[in-house]
Design a protein that fits this description.
The complex is a heterodimer of chains A (109) and B (488).
Chain A (H helix, E strand, L loop, with lengths): L12 H10 L6 H18 L39 H5 L19
Chain B lengths: L2 H11 L4 H10 L4 H19 L2 E4 L1 H17 L10 E5 L26 H8 L3 E6 L33 H8 L5 E6 L5 H7 L2 E4 L19 E6 L2 H11 L17 H6 L6 E5 L9 H16 L3 E5 L7 H16 L18 H12 L2 H14 L5 H22 L4 E5 L15 H5 L6 H6 L2 E9 L5 E8 L4 H14 L2
Parallel strand pairs in B: 2-3, 2-4, 7-8, 7-9
Antiparallel strand pairs in B: 1-3, 4-6, 5-6, 5-10, 9-11, 10-11
Classes of the chains: A mainly alpha (109), B alpha/beta (488).
Chain lengths: 109, 488
């Protein structure tokens, strides 16, 4: 874990490349430059949140937590139910052997 | 031409309400099949210019219409939406029909199941015409991010229809459907409804099932209706709302008769007007239209008072951190393995992932995935994502405080009327600011209705946003009906 940073960090080309790698995106050099500019502009703007003192405020991940809100979670019973048909699912995949999805080689041997 | 078919054509020329159409079909004067055919004819004429529909589901629509006609011929009572032609935003799946989410990465995908909202519409007799254009993965405020080209605003075709459900709003405005389904994550139903001069509904978070919705930001995404008038929008919401075992975030609370609620007078209702929504950046013509709307509510017997929502200015930064963080996780599933596009000729699995995503996603989607991934990455999580979630609570709580004092809050839906195509595409931040009045309700999970409220001198529609507390859709519809009735 790196140390916790402030919301004032300037994004560098290396950051964009690193984040793109984490997100499994491959950017062209042109795209990297554009994204660098856009991310810095957006992050400069969101840094306005630093003006607010949020010490002691519990994070709100989703509104079902609010008492008045609708989403009282209603989990169904742990019972096996029919799912979608395997053949129907497999038909949508780029490459299968009917039972499994096929992908390029993962490990060289 | 048989007289029923001529009737159907007349109905297409001048939009009718659900009740008018259903009664005509019930009485036998109009056939649902002729009505559907007339809508398809109109779509064929208008779509080349407006680019509203991405695909049509004719076979299914005509089979459904024939069933409605058979019911009517027997004299059986017809369900609420019998024969009503409805279009579906292409982020909701329909069995066997293309589902693109406006993205190339889902090219060729034909999902094997129906979204719950789609299934409920059909069970209520609706005739589903086809799938409607939108911003890629519902990310955008102008519909210019669709991989299949922008939708044009039927009111002025040099202008955007708004986004991301721009096609759903334009379809109703151009009468290429009597009603449509859209989705709203940060304003994607309300803002386009306002730009196109139609009614759009943001239901309470958890009110409508998202089963079968291609996810963007799961703590914010909602499914809701567009219609030409408030009562029909209320009727449609009543059909799609309610608990769904397939979506654990749906509320078990009973569904009100929203159409009946919308019929109730507004006399005595307490209306709040938040000062923060009338500051810098608000177009003077929009302001004056909304002020006329507020005056009409006063004249109808509402009490009007100012309310304060002091964190409003922090809503956009909060929204763009929360939404992009969730999007970066949700969109990880598009990897070329199970559905949609796979980049040809990749030597390894990781190359295949990267090439498929790079070739499949558009620029705005990549931008948001990168921003979200950055905000969630080690060392930045507390500074960005956690901070945004804390501010989200402050924003939600200030709405709850306001709703202790008023029944509804009214605001402009958008600070400006529909802007020109290309006007904001070079500046993502300027585009994000278009959502300034809508993201607050998204973050707080409350409900709202956007209703036409006058126009600018140039004839561009202005929309009033009527917000109500969680599960108080009935109140929002009542207030919206009163604004609609005032014909501002």
């Amino acid at each position: 874990m790196g140390k916790i940073r402030e919301m004032t960090a300037k994004v560098t080309v290396e950051d964009v490349v690193r984040v793109a790698e984490l997100a499994n995106l491959e950017l062209t050099p042109d795209e990297t430059g554009r994204m660098l500019h856009d991310l810095n502009a957006i992050l400069d703007y969101v840094a306005e949140l630093n003006q607010l003192d949020t010490a002691g405020v519990a994070p709100l991940a989703q509104v079902s937590e609010l008492q008045s809100a609708a989403g009282v979670s209603t989990l169904r019973g742990d019972v096996a139910l029919a799912s979608l048909d395997r053949a129907d699912i497999m038909r949508q995949a780029p490459e299968t052997d009917q039972a499994f999805f096929k992908v390029p080689k993962v490990i060289e041997r | 031409m048989p007289s029923e078919a001529k009737d159907a054509e007349n109905f297409v020329e001048k939009p009718r309400t659900f009740a008018e159409l259903r009664d005509a079909i019930q009485a036998g004067g109009t056939r649902a099949t002729d009505l559907a055919a007339a809508y398809y004819e109109r779509i064929e004429k208008k779509n080349p210019r407006l680019n509203v529909y991405l695909s049509l589901t004719k076979e299914r629509a005509l089979a459904q219409a024939a069933q409605v006609d058979a019911l009517a011929a027997k004299g059986d009572p017809l369900p609420a939406l019998a024969g009503i032609p409805v279009g579906v935003k292409d982020v909701l799946v329909m069995r066997g029909a293309p589902a693109t989410a406006g993205s190339k990465i889902l090219e060729g995908y034909r999902p094997p199941y129906d979204a719950t909202a789609v299934a409920r519409l059909e069970a209520a007799g609706a005739v589903l015409l086809g799938k409607i254009n939108c911003d890629e993965f519902a990310m955008g405020s102008s519909n210019e991010n669709s991989a299949y080209g922008p939708v044009r605003n039927p009111v002025d075709t040099e202008r955007v229809p708004g986004g991301s459900s721009g096609g759903s709003a334009a379809a109703v405005a151009a009468n290429m459907a009597v009603a449509t389904l859209g989705t709203d994550t940060g304003g994607s139903i309300r803002q386009p409804a306002s730009f196109c001069g139609v009614v759009g509904v943001l239901p309470t978070y958890g009110r409508v099932s998202r089963y079968g919705l291609i996810a963007f930001a799961s703590s914010l995404d909602r499914v809701g209706p567009f219609a030409a008038n408030v009562r029909d929008a209320a009727t449609l919401l009543g059909v799609i709302a309610g608990h769904d075992p397939q979506d654990a975030t749906t509320s078990p609370a009973p569904v009100e008769d929203y159409a009946a609620e919308s019929d109730k007078p507004v006399e005595g209702l307490r209306i709040g007007v938040p000062t923060e929504y009338f500051g810098e950046g608000l177009d003077p013509e929009v302001r004056s239209a909304i002020e006329s709307g507020v005056a009409a509510l006063k004249a109808a017997g509402c009490s009007v008072k100012p309310v304060s929502l002091p964190h409003t200015n922090y809503a956009i930064p909060t929204y763009y951190l929360v939404a992009t963080a969730e999007a970066s996780a949700n969109l990880a599933r598009f990897d070329g393995v199970r559905y949609g596009y796979r980049s040809p000729a990749s030597a390894s699995l990781s190359d295949m992932y990267r090439h498929s995503r790079d070739e499949g996603f558009g620029a705005e989607v990549k931008r948001r995935i990168l921003l979200g991934t950055y905000a969630l990455s080690a060392g930045y999580y507390d500074a960005y994502y956690l901070k945004a979630q804390q501010v989200r609570r402050l924003l939600a709580e200030e709405f709850l405080r306001a709703f202790a004092e008023v029944d509804a809050i009214v605001t402009p839906t958008s600070p400006v009327p529909a802007f020109k195509l290309g006007e904001k595409t070079g500046d993502p931040l300027a585009m994000y600011l278009a959502d300034i009045y809508t993201v607050t309700a998204s973050l707080a999970g409350i409900c709202g209705v956007t209703v036409p409220c006058g126009a600018t001198k140039a004839g561009l529609p202005v929309g009033m946003q009527v917000l109500a507390a969680h599960l108080c859709e009935g109140t929002a519809f009542r207030v919206a009906r009163a604004v609609e009735a005032a014909q501002i």
